[in-house]
Every structure is written in C-alpha cells, then in structure tokens.
Amino acid sequence: MKKLLSAFFVLAAVVLHAQQITSPDKNLVLTFGLSAKGEPTYALTYKNKPVIKTSKLGIDLKEGADMLEGFTVDKTAQSSFDETWSPVWGEEKTICNHYNELLVTLSQKAEKGRYINVRFKLFNDGLGFRYEFPEQKELTYFVIKEEKTQFAMAGDHKAFWLPGDYDTQEYSTVTSKLSEVRAKMKDAVTPNASQQTFSPTGLQTPLMLKSDNGLYINIHEAALIDYSCMSLNLDDKNMVLESWLTPDAIGDKGYMQAPTQSPWRTIVVSDKAPDILQSRMILNLNEPTKYKDVSWIKPIKYVGVWWEMITGKSSWAYNDLTSVKLGETDYSKTKPNGKHAANTAHVKEYIDFAAKHGFDAVLVEGWNEGWEDWFGKSKEFVFDFVTPYPDFDVKELHRYAASKGVKMMMHHETSGAAANYERHMDKAYQFMVDNGYNSVKSGYVGDIIPRGEFHYSQSMINHYLYAIKKAAEYKIMVNAHEAVRPTGLSRTYPNLIGNEAARGTEYEAFGGNNADHTTILPFTRLMGGPMDYTPGIFETKVSVYNPDNNSFVHTTLVKQLALYVTMYSPLQMAADLPETYNKHLDAFQFIKDVAVDWDDTYVLEAEPGDYITIARKAKGKNEWFVGAITDENARTAKITFEYLPKGKTYLATVYADGKDADYVKNPKSYAIKTIKVNSKTKLDQKLATGGGAAISIKEEVKK
Amino acid sequence: MKKLLSAFFVLAAVVLHAQQITSPDKNLVLTFGLSAKGEPTYALTYKNKPVIKTSKLGIDLKEGADMLEGFTVDKTAQSSFDETWSPVWGEEKTICNHYNELLVTLSQKAEKGRYINVRFKLFNDGLGFRYEFPEQKELTYFVIKEEKTQFAMAGDHKAFWLPGDYDTQEYSTVTSKLSEVRAKMKDAVTPNASQQTFSPTGLQTPLMLKSDNGLYINIHEAALIDYSCMSLNLDDKNMVLESWLTPDAIGDKGYMQAPTQSPWRTIVVSDKAPDILQSRMILNLNEPTKYKDVSWIKPIKYVGVWWEMITGKSSWAYNDLTSVKLGETDYSKTKPNGKHAANTAHVKEYIDFAAKHGFDAVLVEGWNEGWEDWFGKSKEFVFDFVTPYPDFDVKELHRYAASKGVKMMMHHETSGAAANYERHMDKAYQFMVDNGYNSVKSGYVGDIIPRGEFHYSQSMINHYLYAIKKAAEYKIMVNAHEAVRPTGLSRTYPNLIGNEAARGTEYEAFGGNNADHTTILPFTRLMGGPMDYTPGIFETKVSVYNPDNNSFVHTTLVKQLALYVTMYSPLQMAADLPETYNKHLDAFQFIKDVAVDWDDTYVLEAEPGDYITIARKAKGKNEWFVGAITDENARTAKITFEYLPKGKTYLATVYADGKDADYVKNPKSYAIKTIKVNSKTKLDQKLATGGGAAISIKEEVKK
After folding, report:
1. Which residue of B has its CA nearest to A323?
2. Self-association or partners: how does it assemble (chains A, B) (predicted)?
3. Secondary structure of residue A24 in the 3-state scheme
4. Of A257, A377, A378, which is closest to B379 when you measure between CB atoms?
5. Distance from CA of A380 to the nearest CA of B (A)
C-alpha cells in the first residue's frame, strides 16, 4: 500500500488533476492527469511495475486548433460494471465482463469550451480507453490529421512485431528488442501483392511485448468502426510508441461527425503469458449484438478445392488467356487449360469426402469467370461473383451437396476492387441464397480500388463492415481474407466468423513459415479475433504436388493436428487434399473429432515464440481436446488434466510426433496411442523440433 | 483544285506516308501523316482554309515506352458510310449519318510491333477521330499518363471558353482571343462548391472558336465511355491546344484493357454559324442504342418545388439542426423550421397547377431526410434516397398526382458521395418504381467521395453511366446535374434525357448570368447533348421572393420564353413559382404550347455570343415554334418562314418584348399579338436589350 501511495504522489507531482482507478483485483492502476500545458496523460502499472509510463493523449486535426493541449478537466465520473454474457460461438460458453471505469470530460478554453471525453475501462486483464466526441456547437464535423496516443514503454522490451503497413499483414513476425526494429526493418519487409510501409520503425497491432521484469504486454484496438486502422510508430530513442493512422487517398486520416468516438486502444497485461491468451477484454469492449435471430450462425468445419491451386498443382483459371472481359469473352469457345480444379466432377469428389467424414462444407475457389487476369492489373470489373465457368455446374453441385448433407462454401475474391464488389454484392448474396450457400470466403488480394485507398483506410474499414452487415440480411456468414485484422467486432456482428489478416498456411507453399510462427500468432493476430489459418497439411513437401515448388510446411504432421486446438477459430479447414488424408486416416481422425466451438478453454502453458499448450472442452459435450506446439526447439510439454470432472476416468487418444520426427527431415513420423486419464493425471509429452501433440478425450464408456 | 493539289504537296513534303480523305461534299480535307521521327500527325482544311495545322497524335503511358513516336504505317483502309436514323427524341425526326472514313494502323518496331489504329471519320460538318487499341500480345493492360492529341490552331482565334477544371463546368463563359486566356484566367475562376483548375491556360470542351477569316470551329469529344474526360491545355506561344485528361486520386489518367478505344475527338467546322448548331456529328459518332423497348422514354415538361429554395424563399431542409445522422436522428421529434417547401400540402398546389396547365411532372427537391447538413462537410452517408421528411407523404402524393394525370419527378442529390449513391441505388430506383416515379434529377454538388477522385475522372465517368444503365433496368429516365458534360451518349442510352453540366438558370439567383450567356451555350455546352437549363423565370427580380437576395435574371421575360426553343432539351421546366405564372397566364401560354420534341429544326440566323434565331416543327404535329434571343444589344431578328408548307396560311402568336423593355430596367414589359403568316413571310422582329421573341405557329383553321 505504501508503495502504491508513493507511486501515486510521484505521479501526482508531475501531472495535475490526477485521477486514479484500479482494476477489480487492484493489480492494475491507471492514472490520468494533465501536464502543465494541459495535455491529457495516462499511465498504467501492474503490481506496481510500470506498464505504460506517463504518456500523452490527443488528436491532431486537419483544420483549426488541435485536441492536444490547453485542456482542463471539467468533470470525472467513476463507475463499475460486472456482467456475464454468452457469445454465439467462442472459446468459452460464458464470458465475464468486469471493469472499473473512469470517464474524464476535458475542455479547451481557447476553443470556446470545446470538450471531449476519454473513457477508461480497467479490467483485471488490462486497460481499454477511447476518445469520445459529444455533439456540441463547437464540434460537429472534423477531419483527423493524426491521432497522437502514446504508449511510453518502460524499457527496451522484447517485441514480436510486424512492419507497420497500410496494405498487408502477411509479413513473418520478427522477434527482437524494440531497439533493434530499425536495423531489422529492411529484411522484414518481404514482397507482397499489395503493401505500403510508412516508417522505418512502424509496427502493426496486435503488438506483443515482454519486459525484462517479466511483464507480458499486448497493444491493439477494439471495436474498429468508421475510423482508420491504427498502427504504431516507435520513437526508438525514448521507447515511446505512438498511434499512426492509415491515410485515405488524399492523406487525411479520418472524416468524423460528432457524436462519435475512436475505437478502444487496448493494453492487455499480465505477468503470466497464459493470461494474455485467456484475456477476453477486446471482446468485452465491443457492443453486444443486436441481431435478433442468430440460429443461422454456426461454426463450420470444411474442406476445399484450394490447396491444390496454392501449391501450383492445379489452376484457378479455366483457360490460359492473358486477358478476358466479363460478359464479352465467350468462355465456352475458349480452350480449357486442363488444370482447372473447380470442375463439377472433381468438386463432387470433395463433397463425397466431406460427407464421408462429417464435414459441414466444401469451399471451391476458381469456380467463376475472371481468374485468367485477376491479379496485378488493377482491373476494376474483375469478377461478377455470379457467372460460373463452363465446367462448374452450380445447380448440380448444390443438389449433389445437399443430397449428402453438405453445404457449398462460396468464394468472393474481389482482387481489392471493393467498389466493384459493392456494385455486385446484392446480386452476389442473392445468388448464394438461391443456390444453397450460407457462408462466403471473401478476399482482397491486390491494391484497393478506389485507387489511392489502402486496405486499412477508413473507407475500407467501412466497406468490410458493410459487407458483413449486408451478409446478415441474407443470413450469410463471412470469412474475410486480406481484410483488416479483427478487433472483436464478432461480438456485435457474429456472422463475421473469420478473417485471415495475417500470414497463413498458404505461405508454407510460398517459401514456408517460421517454425515458431504459430507459437506467436495467438499472442498477436488472434488477440482481436479468430483466424482462418487453414491447417491440416499432412503432405508437408509441396514438391509432391508440384515438382516446381520446393517449399515445405515448417511443422511436423502432428503439429498440424495440434493447431486445431491452439489456433482458435469457429471456422476450421482440413486444407490438404483428400487423396493425402486417405493415406493417413488414423491421424485424420483427430481433425474429424476436434470440436470447433467450446464451453471452456484452459491455457496450460505458453510462452510467445516458444510453445503453447491449450486444453478446451467441446461445447455441450463431454469431450475435451488438447493441443501442444513448440517452435524449432524440441521440448516436453507439461500437459495436465485438472479441468476434467473429478472422480471419472477418461480415454485420451494421443497423437504424438514419432521418436525421430523432425519438421525438416521426418515430418510425417507420428504415433497414436490411447491412454486412460483423470483429473490428476500429469503427462509429459515429448514434442519434436517443429512439432506438437494433439489429444482427444472422452469419457470412458463402461460396458 | 490547283490550290488543293499544292496544299497537298506542301503537306506531303513535311509528312511522310501522307494519306488524305475528303468529306462527302469535299469541303473538308483531312491529311494524315508521320513526322520524320515517326510521330503520327493530322491536319484539316475547310474550303482550303486551315482548320487544324499539322498536329501530333499519341498517348504517353505510365510505364514502358510511350505511344508517341517511332511509328510506321502498317496499312490504311478507306470506306464510306451513309445512313439515316431516327433518334428516340431530338431536334429532328431523322438524322443523316454520312462520312468518309480513313483507318490507319500504325506500329512501333521498337516495341515488338505493338500497333494501334487511328480512325478518322470525315463528315460534311466536321471531323471525328479516335485511337483504337486492339488486343495483342504486346498490349493488354496499360495505364495512361497523358493523352497527347494536339489541335494546332491557324491563328489567334476568338474563343468562347471556360477555365479547364476537374470538378466544375459552372463558370461564366469568357469571350476573348486565345492569346488573352492567360491574363483573363484569374478572374474567370469564380468560386464553386467543388473546383480544381490545372493550368493557367487550361480550357474545357466544348470549345467554340471563330477565326479572323470567318471559320467557326468547335472542339469536343464524343462517346466518352470508360475513359477520362478531356480538357485542353493551350500553348499560347504557338496557339496549339493539347488534350489534358482528368487524373484519378493517384494522378493516373486512364486504366485501360485492350481491346478498347479512346472517345472520338471532334472538330465541327463551317463558315456559317448556323451550321455549327445544326451539326449532329457528335450523335452520329455514338453507337446506336441496343435498348429493345424505348416506349417508356418520353420527353417531359415539368414544374417543380425548386426555384423557391434557390432564391432563398424556402428551404430544402426540414429543421435547423446543424448535424443529423440518417437512421439515428428522429425527425419527428425535431422542430420544423417553418420554411420547408417540400411538404404535402404545398406540393399538391404544384400538382394542381401542373394538371391544370397540362404539365407532365412535378419535381420536388428537399423531400428526403438529410438536407440539414448535406453540403460542404464531405459527409459520406449524406442521403439514403428513400426516407422522406415527416411532412412529405410519398404515397399520398403519388396517389394525388396519379389521380390528376401527373407524374412525380424524383430528386437524388448525392452531394458528390458517389460510392454512397451506389450503395443505395437499387433500393432508390425500386422505391421510385414502387411510388410511381419514372424520372429522376440527380446531382453531384460538392467534392467527390471516393475522396481524391474528380467529377470528370474515369471512375466518375463510369459511375454516371452505371447510374444510367441501372436506371434503364427500372425504366427510369435520368437527368444528371453536376455530372460530366454530355458527349452524345443519349444515342446509345436514350434514357439519359438531360444534364446540367454548365452554368444554369440557378446562377441567375446567385449573382446573375451574363446577358449573352444563352447566345453562347448552344455553341458550347449543347454541342454534346441537351441541357436542363430550367428557364421560364417571369419574376426576374429575386428580391421579390427573398428580400435578402438582390440578384436578378439577366433577360427580359420574353427571352425566357424564347429559350424553350433556342435551348433544345427533351426535358423542359417552367421553373418559376405558380403564383407568378398566374399573374402572366397570357405569356405563360407559350410555355404551355411549346413542344419538347421535334420533327425538324431550322437555325435561321446565329452568331455565338450575339444572337440566335431558331424555328422548329413539333413532332407529329402541324405546329411550329420560333425563338429569337439577343445579348445586351437590342437588335432586329430576321425571322423567315420558308419551312412552312407552301400554299397555306398560318396563325402566328408573337410574344415580343415591349417597346420599352430592358432586361435591367423593365424586363417584364411584353406584348402578345397574333398575325397571319405563310412560307413567304419575312418578319423583322425587334428584340430589346437582353431580350427575345417567341412565336407559336399553327394552321389557320377555316370555319
């Protein structure tokens, strides 16, 4: 307590009008204040250790006086909130939303008393705060030049970072100290179909940090609605991160109309890494859903005509023309290239496979006219989303799939031509409804049209939400790839069941992902929402499918199984080809069994960049699943079972790396065994280099 | 002939591979050639006088080698074409399309034989030519950096010009020599809601010119489709005009996919001014319509709730809030401002007036939520096009109007937020169909959203056509204000029945139009298509409606009548208020009688900037109408009647300026008399300063 008081007085000495709140468990302390110049500031400590040193808040406007200084505090209000709510789908059946709130109203005398609010919500797992702009005479329309929210770091933390970019999130994570970002940036910016860095020390969020004194700190945003997506720019002299918004085509960073607000800036904190993964703060900061009927929203396990094109074995395109014009090119008169995977007979094979193994849906990419010249041409009328190739029989495949209890999953690649997508969207969604599709994977590969806008500009943030809301009118679930990384919007819009928005499994076929890639992603990308990571690759050598492609998946086969547990998603793909699964049906059984919706989640052990071990209970069933993964270092996972009801015995089928497994040299070596476990069992499970372990647990049925 | 041959040899000496064609009547001679550097050139003479001196052609590309030089002629082809066709509506029942054509195929050896076509069509009234980009291995996708089409003038011509601008066409025409453009530009660029000049000698098209040796020359474009709108930049040292396209948000000037083509660049020529107005070349250069059913497309005479807001007497807005949010602001709970003209009772008065006097439709602006803050805020979700104000009963007004045989005319002000309009367009058009509307006036007041695009960028050209084509699906006619000036597209899309795209009658209430304004517009703005000029203002002193507005209409009352004949449009508004018309029903009779669709048109006399006298025969009726207008100079119009069938007598009702009429001091002085005329009659009709005369002619019915 003494320490707390002295810390308070120290802070109070340098800031005026200091206000303070604590988290419900009192571990976190937020201090708000004003500098001598009237600049709003905040600071955050966790168990008396600094998380955020005194940092400035404010907004720089395009015209007129800024919202940066000259503030006085008009009033403050403190309150508390405590509820439990149930998501439509998620890692838990119920989520606890408990915080203490501080609402500060600030005004600028020099601006005729123009006032704003800053609202702080302090949870046990972290802090969320946002700016609010109430409607008033002195404030209706304003244009943001830059947001100036600082996050002053208490040290040269270890960081798991991606280069800040207006157009792509698909870089490999770099692990380094903050002071090394500048030197490592050049190599980190690998080529992408659409990219735009902005600073030699620019970083994306979610940003994961670890301090020397053992604090895990994650910085991101929640409820990104009608605002520009935030990146961070690092002042690597002072170790201060500052918000850096995405501009529009003319360089402005936000068109605002009061009353309105910024998204929540989120800082998740703990001294235990698993707490970061168990934080639901970002969801809690989003609004509850207003959807009345959510019965049409269901998690999906699917297969798809996709990996065979990603590897280069097949093609999306129907023929080899270099240029087509939709509505003018008569495809029936062109010569098929013989490699088009999305043909009726071949898709039926996938449907048969899905039906046989209990999958919900089959995704088909390359089903529609336009793939011959879709990429890299800034072509506007690139797809119409409703015209199939001559060899893809929409109605027959709908009938066939339905007869087998399988859904077809639609694919809407937009090629970044968002305006074109909007022109066709109603027809495209109606086409889906008319032909039995209830879910769509959308994509935004390539530079955005309207030209000059970026993937994370305010206009595109609005576009993505427009697509989700309109989809809900048609009872369609959306899985948006290359869209902005999620910020918990699925609470409000639960038909947003997935995003890619990071470097996914496809990159294993484009040179490979780092061995530690998926030990980082839950600490970064997944903080804002689930990822359609599309794991399940059993044939890790891509050259088996395409002799010209020497990429390989940087995991063992078993680690691919574990990913179904460690990479939470309500949308899970078994991404490999049926012919490969048929060779390993014993291992494939785990993918068939694993749930995609959960009653509860237990992060048993985790360290970003090194390992993760998670157990989950399937929703509404007495089944549990455990996934353990490691990076390039072999290790022994410490798997415990305290979450199993006491006094019962369970059968655990353990899918393990073989003794000689090695993600480079011997990835497909695995062993499956069944053991009995109960709540007291402790299992030391060896994981190979780049390996993992997967366990499915069910009650022992006594005869 | 000798002169022609020597001219040819002179040209041939300086250009290689000279090709020549003549117009059917041989007055115009086009010469195509290549410079020593392989730059394509063309030149045009009329009756041996130079119209266009040898001028370069070509396209500058963003990437790779340009299409400017290094060409050789692969082949040429000459042909002729002669047809008569009937427009759905127009100044004539039939139009003659007769030209000689030269098609030149040029290739660049250095670019692996990449080839383009230049196609010249030479009519009796002028030259049209365009670039064509056939699909080939060396040319599919390309981005235009600038088109480099020159129009080398043979002298320092008199020009009737507007400042070149990417966003507005609403400047007052400046009449000066080309050499004076630079000095006069600053004063010419008057303020506008959205504007962007690009050069101190930039000019818009249509551009009207008159040479010292009596040639009338008009430069414009035809069939502007999927291309950037062309302005001209004047090199005022050499008197060379060069094409200057409108950029997009990132500075590019055209995203192209072969096979494709540029619009036609048009040069209308004559030594008689009336021939310029009688030219139908721009329509002839457009494609015939593919619409199968055009029965729903009909010319419209209308009144509207509009001028009372333009003058400031009433408001578009329902209340006086400074900021509203559609779907959130509950209008029924706000305090009406008491000046909202678009209310049910008041609109019924207009409907009554329309029904009583035989008008087809009533336009209502300000009927829908959003007018409180629609302007100047770059607000994106500014209108939804379907939600009426609380005092505007859509269904009741539909019923009432229908019961009286009157149509309601819809208004879609977009505020330049084109992307927002597209999001709502299907719903908006369906709402029209559901509520009995078959025509819409659309508007684009303010800067464009997507931000950074301009009103005349390629993306907006595509948007305007998208709106027209989609309207046709709903059998809706479109009258687009602030959209790009027309280029004859109405031939292909006859539901485009109007544009504003110039300084219209509304500016009479914003300070006034020049007294010669409408003696110029037919030679400039109207060359590409009709204008919804909305004349018919009888109360020329705006202060009568709004004491705070001292603007006055710069014409006499009778000149307003004449405009219904001299300003061709299939869409004609009687723009003043019913209460004013009721005071002058005798003069109003002309507006009631005047046709809006024509069998034939006769330009009796005309001089750009000075006077126009036109006679027209109503479509399918034995009625003729004459309009004569002058500028600030009083004059005597020489009105003849040779177009009347011989041997019959006709009754001509002559609406004339009073003896003491004066557009400033005594605008409302007029006299109406009926006289008998026949085909031999010659009428010297006095026009006051800023005045006119209007005549309606019908057969004498003998008892």
Report:
1. B140
2. Monomer.
3. coil
4. A257
5. 9
Task: Pick the catalytic residue from B506, B508, B539, B623.
Answer: B506
Tokens of A399: 């009938």
Question: A386 vs A320, A368, A436, B232, B261, CA distance in Å?
Answer: 21, 7, 13, 41, 28
One-letter identity of residue B465: L
Residue A138 has pLDDT above 50, yes or no: yes
Give the single-character DSSP code of B197: B
Contact A257 B452 (CB under 8 A): no
Q: Say whether domain B503-543+557-563+570-703 belongs to CATH 3.30.70.20.
A: no
Active-site residue list of A:
506
CATH top-level class of B287-501:
alpha beta
**Binding-face residues of A in 397-426 toward B, CB within 8 A:** 419, 422-423, 426
Concerning whether B91 is annotated as a catalytic residue, the answer is no
The two tokens of residue B518 are 């409408």
Residues of B in contact with A380 (CB under 8 A): 255, 462
Q: If you search the block for the tokens 């959960």, which residue do you land on? A: A598
pLDDT tens sequence across B260-272:
999 999 999 999 9
What is the 3-class SS of B158-185, one letter each residue? EEEECECECCCCCCCCEEEEHHHHHHHH
pLDDT digits (tens, 9 = 90+) for A252-286: 999 999 999 999 999 999 999 999 999 999 999 99
Please answer whether residues A461 and A225 qualify as being in contact, where contact means their C-beta atoms are separated by less than 8 angstroms.
yes
Contacts of A430 in chain B (CB under 8 A): none
B380 backbone φψ class: left, alpha, beta (φ>0; ψ -120 to 50): alpha
CB proximity B377 to A under 8 Å: yes
Q: CA-to-CA distance for A442 and B403, rounded, in angstroms?
A: 49
Q: Return d(Cα B573, Cα B307) in angstroms, integer.
A: 11
Tell me, what amino acid is at A640?
Answer: T
Of all residues in chain B, the percent with pLDDT exceeding 90 is: 97
Q: Distance between CA B352 and CA B303 in Å, rounded?
A: 11
B249–A contact, CB cutoff 8 A? yes
Tokens 């927002």 belong to: B420
Could you tell me the residue ranges of all domains in chain A?
3-284, 287-501, 503-543+557-563+570-703
**3 state SS of B326:** coil
SS3 B101: strand
Q: What is the DSSP string of B351-413?
A: HHHHHHHT-SEEEESS-BTTGGG-SSS--SS---SS-B-TT--HHHHHHHHHHTT-EEEEEEE
Q: CB distance from B459 to chain A under 8 Å?
A: yes
Distance of CA B227 to the CA centre of its chain: 18
Q: What share of chain B is helix, strand, coil (3-state, %, to 5)?
A: 20, 35, 45
pLDDT at A5: 56
**CA–CA gap between residue A126 and residue B428 (Å, rounded):** 46
pTM: 0.95
The CA-based angle A252-A254-A256, given to 5 degrees, is: 135
Strand order in the sheet with B477-480: B496-499, B477-480, B439-443, B407-413, B361-364, B300-305, B571-573
Residues of chain B with pLDDT under 50: 10-13
Backbone torsion region of residue B436, taken as left when φ is above 0, otherwise alpha when ψ lies between -120 and 50, otherwise beta: left
Q: Which helix (H) or strand (E) holds A119?
A: strand A114-123
Helix, strand, coil abundance in chain A, percent, nearest 5: 20, 35, 45
Task: Tell me whether domains A287-501 and A503-543+557-563+570-703 share a fold.
Answer: yes
User: What DSSP element (H or E) covers A618?
Assistant: strand A611-618
Q: Is the peptide bond before B547 cis (omega within 30 degrees of 0)?
A: no
Instruction: Say if the Cβ atoms of B466 and A322 lie within 8 Å.
Output: no
Q: Assign a CATH topology to domain A3-284.
A: Beta-galactosidase; Chain A, domain 5 (2.70.98)
The encoded tokens of residue B136 equal: 């080939």
